[in-house]
């Protein structure tokens, strides 16, 4: 049996974590001995990990977490306060040298100086939550494996990534999996040395399971007869729920009978709650929080809207496709790999004006909603169409 290690930050309810669960469901338990290593053993998806998969938490993250999160001045003060004086000069040196050369590799080498090697040798070790500095560095430098893979789930051009750090880290990986063709091109543009190592491995979508889960009954504004719009995603500027709030306000001002429901949780909830109040939308815009099973909400929506400013692939869009919903999506990385504009979905520029125009169009012309849904009926699981799992 092959020994495989997957490393993530946690198992919070999110697209990356969900994609790992889908991947695990495709891996035969009689061929793989799998360990999931987490920085913090927490999250709503923990209980959904198969019982034959081992789940562990690193024993060093709480030691270095303050160093990563706080200012360097605070780290130096903490060293002095705890009488760890020998650590102060090496830390100051590594921090300022890294800053001068714009290369955080030197900084992380100092941060991980006292972290021991993982004492298990794996056939495959996967930094699954990429790009995440701590996880990529640990897999690259503290794990022994015949093959090392970094799995990039985001459009790297939209994230503040230290290119010198990653150019050095990626030399230690055998392969870089990227979740869409466009995201792979952006990665190569930013870090040219990965060309030849990078390849596309799209997120696996368990279509039949999604359809089955969508049949679960949930109380979802059952008495409301207007248009229901659903969006799924973490509450953050990256996912663009602020655009949804502005778009709904405009639709209501034009006399449309619409309610918008956002599924997901995140750090920007309070800001969005303020926006909802300022736009006087408490009766029409709802933040429903996170749920393990968002599919009944998608299935019972009239229109699914993805408002993301950037994505690597966007698993929630793929899931809405499984349920053959009329879709309006912003034109983030990977959107055009999932939909053909005007045929099985509408792709718009990432602004309130374009979202408003296309949503209004679908409300005004119900036959267009029927056409988009009908053209998605033949959508089948990309798991076996794109690539068979080989690791």
Would you give an account of this structure?
By secondary structure, the chain is α/β, with parallel strands linked by helices. It has two domains: 2-60 and 115-200, Rossmann fold (3-Layer(aba) Sandwich), CATH 3.40.50; 208-382, Glycogen Phosphorylase B (Rossmann fold), CATH 3.40.50.2000. The chain contains 17 helices and 13 strands. Strand 4, helix 6 and strand 5 form a beta-alpha-beta unit.
- Tell me the CATH topology of the largest domain: Rossmann fold
> Which architecture name of the largest domain does CATH use?
3-Layer(aba) Sandwich
Main β sheet profile: 7 strands, parallel
User: Would you identify the CATH H-level superfamily of the largest domain?
Assistant: Glycogen Phosphorylase B
Counted up, domains total 2
What value does the Rg take, in angstroms? 23 Å
Strand content: 15-25%
Q: What are the low-pLDDT stretches, counting only 5+ consecutive residues below 50? A: 380-390
Please trace the helix and strand order, writing H or E for each element: EHEEHHHHEHEHEHEHEHEHEHEHEHEHHH
Give the distance, in angstroms, between the N- and C-terminal Cα atoms.
12 Å
Q: Determine the structural class based on helices, strands and strand pairing.
A: alpha/beta
The proportion of residues forming helix, as a percent range, comes to 25-40%
- Average pLDDT across residues? 93
Question: Based on CA inertia axes, which overall geometry fits?
Answer: globular
- Count of beta strands: 13
CATH class label of the largest domain: Alpha Beta
Strand order in the largest sheet: 3-2-1-4-5-6-7
Q: So how many helices?
A: 17
């Amino acid at each position: 049996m092959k020994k495989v290690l997957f490393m993530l930050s946690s198992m919070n309810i999110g697209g990356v974590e969900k994609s790992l669960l889908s991947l695990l469901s495709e891996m035969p338990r009689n061929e793989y001995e799998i360990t999931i290593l987490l920085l913090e053993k927490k999250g709503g998806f923990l209980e959904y990990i198969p019982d034959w998969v081992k789940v562990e938490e690193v024993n060093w993250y709480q030691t270095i977490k303050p160093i990563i999160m706080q200012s360097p001045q605070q780290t130096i003060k903490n060293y002095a306060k705890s009488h760890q004086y020998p650590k102060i000069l090496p830390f100051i040196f590594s921090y300022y040298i890294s800053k001068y050369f714009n290369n955080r590799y030197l900084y992380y080498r100092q941060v991980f100086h006292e972290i021991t090697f993982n004492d298990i040798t794996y056939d495959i070790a996967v930094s699954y939550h990429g790009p995440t500095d701590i996880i990529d560095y640990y897999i690259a430098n503290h794990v022994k494996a015949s093959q090392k893979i970094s799995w990039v789930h985001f459009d790297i051009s939209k994230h503040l990534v230290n290119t010198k750090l990653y150019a050095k880290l990626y030399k230690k990986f055998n392969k870089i999996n990227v979740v869409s063709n466009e995201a792979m091109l952006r990665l190569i543009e930013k870090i040219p040395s990965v060309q030849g190592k990078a390849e596309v491995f799209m997120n696996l979508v368990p279509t039949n399971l999604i359809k089955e889960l969508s049949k679960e009954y949930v109380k979802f504004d059952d008495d409301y007869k207007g248009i229901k719009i659903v969006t799924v995603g973490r509450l953050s500027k990256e996912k663009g729920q602020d655009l949804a709030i502005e778009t709904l306000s405009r639709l209501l001002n034009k006399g449309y009978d619409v309610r918008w429901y956002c599924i997901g949780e995140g750090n920007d909830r309070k800001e969005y709650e303020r926006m909802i109040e300022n736009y006087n939308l408490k009766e029409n815009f709802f933040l429903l929080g996170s749920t393990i099973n968002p599919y009944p909400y998608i299935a019972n929506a009239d229109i699914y809207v993805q408002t993301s400013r950037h994505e690597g692939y966007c698993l929630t869009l793929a899931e809405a496709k499984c349920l053959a919903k009329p879709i309006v999506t912003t034109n983030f990385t990977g959107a055009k790999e999932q939909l053909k504009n005007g045929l099985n979905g509408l792709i718009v520029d990432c602004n309130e004006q374009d979202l408003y125009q296309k949503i209004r169009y679908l409300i005004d012309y119900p036959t267009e909603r029927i056409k988009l849904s009908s053209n998605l009926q033949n959508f089948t699981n990309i798991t076996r169409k794109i690539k068979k799992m080989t690791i």
